[in-house]
Design brief:
seven-stranded mixed β-sheet; alpha+beta; 167 residues
């Protein structure tokens, strides 16, 4: 498996992964993703911003993650350990037929290495309270729960995590 910068040719495969993931989320009563988010335009903007990365195996996109320094304003109310700039993970998705192979962990580790390479050894991310799989994944990768934020379009809160890299 390789991880590379995403491009416009990857969007169709990413949207197929998103569609399949939304179906599983619905079955798990998790409405974090739906027909309104994430959209094709979100991934196209990530590509334009050079912040989308894909996991590829045998020429097939099997996962993707966006990593940037765009911190939601809602984070301002939280008490983070560190007030320095951070890299943030968004829209982590893995092909539902490739789950259980450690691809999400590899994508997370890739984002952390990227942050360190850019002299920014600090990560933040969030996930919806109903997304128990993501909560478990982030905590297993050493992320610490900082608090929660609300988004008006969702009934449940989003849990916000941080990780100081190299600590």
């Amino acid at each position: 498996m390789i991880i590379r910068r995403g491009n416009v040719e990857d969007v169709t495969a990413i949207m197929e992964m998103v569609k399949n993931t939304i179906q599983i989320m619905k079955e798990e009563e998790n409405d974090q993703w739906d027909e309104h988010y994430p959209l094709k335009t979100d991934f196209e903007a990530d590509i334009s911003g050079r912040s989308l990365f894909v996991a590829e195996e045998d020429g097939k996109v099997i996962g993707s993650v966006t990593v940037d320094q765009h911190e939601p304003e809602a984070y301002n109310i939280l008490d983070f350990q560190n007030n320095t700039p951070a890299f943030l993970m968004h829209r982590l998705v893995v092909d539902v037929y490739q789950r259980g192979k450690g691809i999400a962990k590899q994508l997370i580790q890739f984002t952390e290495h990227l942050a360190i390479e850019h002299h920014c050894p600090y990560m933040k991310t969030d996930t919806y309270a109903k997304n128990k799989k993501a909560f478990s994944l982030f905590t297993s990768e050493g992320y610490t729960l900082v608090g929660e934020i609300r988004r008006e379009e969702k009934d449940s809160p989003f849990y916000v995590f941080e990780k100081i890299l190299g600590a």
